[in-house]
Amino acid sequence: MPTKRARVTITETPSVARRFELAAARFPERANSRGDLLLALTEVAEQALLKEAGDGDGREAAKKRLLARTEAISPDEARAMLAAREADWQNEPGR
């Protein structure tokens, strides 16, 4: 697929192959595609890094992304959007 974004190529060394095997066992629905397994591994890594950074559910990162997207609007509008998102989070099931 054409893209202007950077692409990444990795060599399937024995350690990388082992990680693909672990990912295939954890995500059998994605096991037919090395690309899907690689995305699954990056998703798991993201969650682990967020948890390690003290942002286990990714909300702080989500706040930063939301605020970055709102640079073109006023600070008051950005705070209102963030408040609405936080209200949604408060109303999530299990809270």
Tell me what the structure shows.
The structure is a single chain. This protein has 95 residues and is mostly helical. It has 2 domains: 14-52, no CATH class; 59-90, no CATH class. It contains 4 helices and no strands. The protein has helices spanning 14-26, 34-52, 59-69, 75-90. Helix 1 packs across helix 2 (34-52). The protein is elongated, with a radius of gyration of 18 Å. The termini are far apart. The mean pLDDT is 83.
The strand count comes to 0
Structural class label:
mainly alpha
Which percent range describes the beta-strand content? under 5%
Largest sheet: none
Question: With helices defined by DSSP (H or I, 4 residues minimum), what is the helix count?
Answer: 4
Q: How far is it from the N-terminal to the C-terminal residue, by CA?
A: 41 Å
Query: What is the general shape?
Result: elongated
- The helix fraction, in percent, is 55-70%
* Rounded Rg: 18 Å
Unreliable stretches, pLDDT < 50, 5 or more residues? none
The total number of structural domains is: 2
What is the H/E order?
HHHH
- What is the averaged pLDDT score? 83
